[in-house]
Structure formats: C-alpha cells, structure tokens
Design a protein that fits this description.
Elements: H1 3-18, H2 28-35, H3 39-46, H4 49-73, H5 79-96, H6 98-105, H7 111-120, H8 122-133, H9 141-162, H10 167-181, H11 195-208, H12 215-229
Helix pairs in contact: 1-2, 1-4, 3-4, 4-5, 4-6, 4-7, 4-8, 5-6, 5-8, 5-9, 5-10, 8-9, 9-10, 9-12, 10-11, 11-12
GO molecular function: DNA-binding transcription factor activity; transcription cis-regulatory region binding
Domain HTH tetR-type: 5-64
Protein name: AcrR family transcriptional regulator
Length: 232
C-alpha cells in the first residue's frame, strides 16, 4: 500500500473510531490528530469532513453487502434459510457496528452514498427474485425483499437506540416476515400460526419506548408490524 493510500485508510479508520463520540461534533483537526496526518491530507482525499463521513458510510455499505453475499451463499439451497441468514447478518452487523449502522441507516442519503445503499440491497434482491422465479413467494420479489429489509433495519435500529439487544425478539420478527411472504405448502412454515402474536408483542414494546426510533423509522416499522398483527 502506498503512503498516500495508507494516509487515506488511516483517516477512514480514525473517523470510524470517532463515530463512538459523535463524529459530527468532532473537529477535522481532531480526526487528523487521531489519524496522525496533516490537515491538508484530509482535504486532499475528501474535500471536507462531510466527504469523509460519506466515505465511511459507503465503506460500511460495501462491507455489509459482502457479508450478505457470503451469508446467503453459505446457507444451503433453501430460500427460507438464506433469507434467515440475510436477516441475521444485518442484525449482527448492527450489533457489532452500532455507530456505523446508525450513520448508514439513520439518515437520508444522496449521491454516492445513496448508490452504495442501493448496491447493498442487491444480494437480498437477487435472493428474492430467485425465490419468486421458483414460485416460493406469495408476494412480489420487490415486496418480499422490502419487507425483510425494513424489518431487519428497523429492528436493528430499535435495539440499538433502546439499548436492548434481544436475539429471540429479532428471530420472531424474521419468522413473522417470512410467514407473510413465503407461499404456503402442505406443511405450513412454522411458527406461522404465531405471526400475529409476535407482531403484536413487538407493537406493544415499541409503544412503550417510542424514543427508540426516529419518527420516519418508527412509522415504517409500525406499518409492517400492524399488517402482520392483523394477519391470520
């Protein structure tokens, strides 16, 4: 790695570490000091602190996309197992990179960051398109992928901001979504009979901690949960 590329990577890593302390409020001088580079170096690579923050988000989406691709490919031929793996991967990524995940999904993006966000949805979209082609879905591929993605991101943000990681609750959300999108067979996927119960419990939990999600995130999450709670 060249010294120029090394300096760029040090800046990215330094800013990522400072996410723990709200990078928005950290000065560019503090970032440069953390990375052990001179101030002009930051402006050479990123033009501004905003550019550096956007580069961190882009890198995060690329890392998550690679993790999703690996998880989906390594969990056997069954679409349902691959969907569970994709859901768990997003929850685990959020758990181990909470400040980065909030930067990635806790705000609206445009330009290169928006494109990186869209690219990170490709592994799951491809998975659902294959499942739809095989006749395994009761909804469209886009609808199914959107439901799983919204549930994973909304659930992850809720757990981060409520500071209440709950793997069983996350699994219940995943199963509820799968039950609502996978085509029923002679032996229905379990625990499909418990979908309304799980969704209702999550609705109650979110209502007791409304501050855990931003208004837009909460509205989207509640929309899906309300639909699942009314299913039968």
């Amino acid at each position: 790695m060249s010294s120029r590329e090394d300096s760029k990577q040090r800046l990215l890593k330094a800013a990522s570490r400072l996410l723990e302390f709200d990078v928005e409020s950290v000065s560019v001088r503090a970032i440069c000091a953390e990375a052990d580079v001179q101030l002009p170096t930051l402006y050479h690579f990123f033009e501004s602190k905003r550019g550096l923050i956007e580069a961190i988000a882009i890198d995060g989406f690329r890392t998550l996309s690679a993790a999703l691709t690996t998880a989906i490919a390594s969990n056997g031929p069954k679409s349902s197992d691959r969907m569970r793996a994709a859901f768990r991967t997003q929850i685990e990524f959020a758990s181990t990179h909470a400040p980065l995940f909030c930067l990635m999904y806790g705000r609206a993006h445009s330009g290169g960051v928006r494109q990186a966000y869209l690219d990170a949805t490709i592994p799951v979209t491809d998975l659902f398109e294959a499942a739809a082609a095989a006749g395994e879905l009761s909804v469209s591929a886009l609808d199914g992928a959107t439901r799983l993605h919204a549930a994973a991101v909304g659930g992850a943000l809720y757990m981060i901001r409520a500071d209440a990681p709950n793997s069983q609750q996350a699994e219940a959300v995943c199963e509820a979504v799968l039950a609502s999108i996978l085509r029923a067979r002679s032996q229905p996927i379990q625990p499909s009979d418990q979908v309304p119960e799980h969704a209702g419990a999550l609705l109650s939990a979110i209502h007791t901690s409304p501050e855990a999600l931003e208004p837009e995130e909460r509205a989207l999450f509640l929309k899906w949960l309300a639909r699942l709670a009314q299913s039968s």
